[in-house]
Amino acid sequence: MSKLPGWLGRVGAELTQLGERLGERRAEADADDVPGNGTVRDSVPAPPDYAPSVAAKPEPAAAIPWGMRVAAEAAWRLLVLAGMLWVLMKIISAVQLVVMAFVGALLVTALLQPTVARLKKWGLPRGVATAVTAVSGFVIMGLIGWFVVWQVVDNIDVLSQRVTDGIEELKRWLLNSPFHVTEQQISDLAKSLSDAIGTNTEEITSAGIQGVTVVVELLTGLLLAVFATLFLLYDGKRIWQWSLKLAPAAARPGLAGAGPRAWRTLTAYVRGTLIVALIDAVFIGLGLYFLDVPLAVPLAVFIFLGAFIPLVGAVISGALAVVVSLVTQDVFTALMVLIVVLAVQQIEGHILQPFILGRAVRVHPLAVVLAVATGGLVAGIGGAVVAVPLVAVTNTVVGFLRAYSLEQATRGGPGPHGATAHDIAPTPAPTPAPTATPTPPQKPTPGPDAAGSDAPPTEPGNGKE
């Protein structure tokens, strides 16, 4: 029993030595796995002579053609922009009434703001100038609306009588026409129209209720536009400065320069369109008055409002004037009205708009047509009205920001950064450096700082030794 502790001690010592040897071997194995330590594992045996040569595989990005890489990066950026626009359109459609009221307030503010600035220049306080301008503008618009309604109510009986006479004349013409239309066919057509109206009474009633809802929304939007116009006239500058703070700091200088130019473009568009619409309404209204067409004043006002929708509004308002003259008068009068409308619109398109609007809001006709169509599909008549000024303002802002970025780039500003294909773009071959004429070695300048000094070296040929 006395030999047992000694035996256990020897077994423990041998186990300890065994563990130490295993640890050393494990450390040697780990050291062999580390590349670059000069071990045998780092050396790769050369392939035999009979093995085929295999070219090294390029990087995956380098294997894709350059044009495809550019197209892929442009595609995902366009997808991000399209998604952002889709979300933005959803938000705008959800609050369409508020957005349209604010846009209308911007248009009215662009029309009235020069008057406020002129009154302030004459010495009136800002609040008084804003109140005088707003009250005057709203009173004038209210008087115009009242005058139109008065003219419609005053001439509605004459118009209905002339429409009835025109329908009877059309009926007589159909009976005597070479189409061999009979009295029974005309009666059947009238009966079919009456039955259709009676059958769709529920739909007509629901449409009327929906029309009442639309009127309530219009009144609400009008009230919002009035309040927004007052605040924009009074405090528009500080509202713009506050809006600039929402933009990133790096983008503020460019936006600060683009904002006033965009506002000048919008002001020029609204004032120019107002002058052109007024000229159209006056001259076409005078033509309707001298041709004895009923409702000449309401038609002139409709032509005035239609001029704010480029191309489309002029066509619709002119066609309505021709139809009214055809129904209430005769074919000759309708033809004369058509000549007057076409003549005034040609003068407007080729002389008035280029002279009054100028280059500030020049937009290509194709862009105008596409903008009006898109605005009408998205937001109806309101969208068609604001589409062209939106395109004109966007054109001004984009042009200024492009010129501003080029100017900053020429001044040595920071270039574009981010995930681009610039790192793997093919670069031109470096041009060989010109051969320099060897210069004789210069003698080092003696002194305590000759060795290890950070001062720039003395250039050769300066006369210093």
Automatic annotation (TrEMBL):
InterPro entries: AI-2E-like
Segments passing through the bilayer: 128-149, 209-234, 268-291, 297-324, 331-347, 367-393
Segments of this protein annotated with the region Disordered: 22-49, 411-465
Record's bilayer topology term: Multi-pass membrane protein
Regions of compositional bias (Pro residues) in chain numbering: 427-447
Intracellular or extracellular location(s): Cell membrane
Keyword Amino-acid biosynthesis: no
Keyword field contains Membrane: yes
Coiled coil: none
Keywords of this entry: Cell membrane, Membrane, Transmembrane, Transmembrane helix, Transport
Principal subcellular localization: membrane
Domain of life: Bacteria
PANTHER family to which the protein is assigned, alphabetical: PERMEASE PERM-RELATED, TRANSMEMBRANE PROTEIN
Family: Belongs to the autoinducer-2 exporter (AI-2E) (TC 2.A.86) family.
Name of the molecule in the record: AI-2E family transporter
Protein species of origin: Streptomyces niveus
Lineage start: Bacteria, Bacillati, Actinomycetota, Actinomycetes, Kitasatosporales
